[in-house]
């Protein structure tokens, strides 16, 4: 029986970029607005965060913004992140603090998914940080421009204490980690059994858009060009959804996000 009680989609920022970043060799020259999402999952045995969004300081401090997001060093440009979109502020609206989070599950270590780790720790979060061993190895190699090396360190410059995982596993009853590499080496999706309605399959960046799923189009950014692996992960998500009755949630699709309950509304 699932231990999941409810889940909140958290809009942590928005990002305008060329559509070809989400759909390989498709949509070049077309600008899209994408939500940057995290998910708070309340269970009978604690709270889980899937992803943590961007580092607020890198966006709002002028020196840091130039260092990380200037066109000379970063093609994507900076996301837009409002004060109320910072995860500690989302938690506060629910009567919670960062210390009330028990597990942080990082689907992959790109800047828009792992950048908020330091702020949460600064706010008193002592949660285990689950991430795939392969993901950390690739991220620390310096070969992925969407990983900001500073996001993997604490305020003192020491490596964050990741709880390294190897392959698929049950986070707890009703929450299953699903291996979906291609976009990154150790990318993870998550299958969540809600108490009511069909299960939810958080695709993460294995599928940015509904189009990735419908047309079986790989994400536009891939680890070492692994299109076949990314397509296999998309097909794996679709088979898992068919077999479990789950609904697959694309991760950066604004039209899909707008159909979800507006915060502080939850999915139950």
Automatic annotation (TrEMBL):
| Domain Metallo-beta-lactamase, residue spans | 35-252
Record's InterPro entries?
A: MBL_superfamily_lactonases, Metallo-B-lactamas, RibonucZ/Hydroxyglut_hydro
Give the cofactors, semicolon-separated: Zn(2+)
Q: What's the short name of a Pfam family annotated to this entry?
A: Lactamase_B
Please name the SUPFAM superfamilies in this protein's record: Metallo-hydrolase/oxidoreductase (SSF56281)
Q: Which Gene3D superfamilies match?
A: Ribonuclease Z/Hydroxyacylglutathione hydrolase-like
The superkingdom listed in its UniProt entry is Bacteria
Q: Which UniProt keywords apply?
A: Hydrolase, Metal-binding, Zinc
Query: Would you identify the family this protein belongs to, as annotated?
Result: Belongs to the metallo-beta-lactamase superfamily.
- Protein name as annotated: N-acyl homoserine lactonase
The organism named in the record is Rhodoferax lithotrophicus
């Amino acid at each position: 029986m699932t231990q999941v009680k409810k889940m909140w989609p958290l809009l942590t920022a928005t990002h305008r970029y060329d559509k070809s970043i989400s759909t390989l060799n498709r949509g070049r020259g077309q600008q899209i607005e994408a939500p940057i999402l995290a998910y708070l999952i309340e269970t009978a045995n604690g709270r889980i965060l899937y992803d943590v969004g961007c580092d607020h300081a890198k966006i709002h401090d002028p020196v840091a913004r130039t260092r990380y997001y200037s066109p000379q060093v970063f093609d994507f440009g900076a996301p837009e992140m409002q004060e109320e979109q910072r995860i500690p502020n989302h938690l506060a609206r629910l009567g919670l603090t960062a210390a009330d989070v028990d597990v942080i599950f990082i689907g992959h270590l790109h800047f828009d998914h792992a950048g908020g780790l330091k702020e949460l720790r600064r706010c008193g979060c002592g949660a285990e940080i689950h991430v795939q061993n392969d993901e950390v190895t690739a991220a620390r190699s310096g070969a992925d421009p969407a990983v900001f090396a500073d996001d993997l360190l604490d305020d003192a410059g020491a490596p964050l204490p990741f709880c390294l995982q190897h392959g698929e596993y049950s986070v707890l009853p009703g929450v299953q980690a699903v291996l979906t590499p291609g976009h990154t080496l150790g990318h993870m999706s998550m299958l969540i059994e809600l108490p009511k309605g069909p299960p939810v399959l958080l695709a993460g960046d294995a599928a940015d858009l509904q189009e990735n799923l419908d047309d079986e189009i790989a994400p536009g950014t891939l680890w070492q060009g692994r299109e076949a692996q990314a397509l296999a992960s998309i097909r794996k998500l679709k088979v898992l959804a068919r077999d479990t009755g789950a609904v697959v949630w694309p991760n950066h699709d604004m039209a899909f996000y707008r159909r979800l309950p507006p915060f502080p509304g939850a999915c139950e």
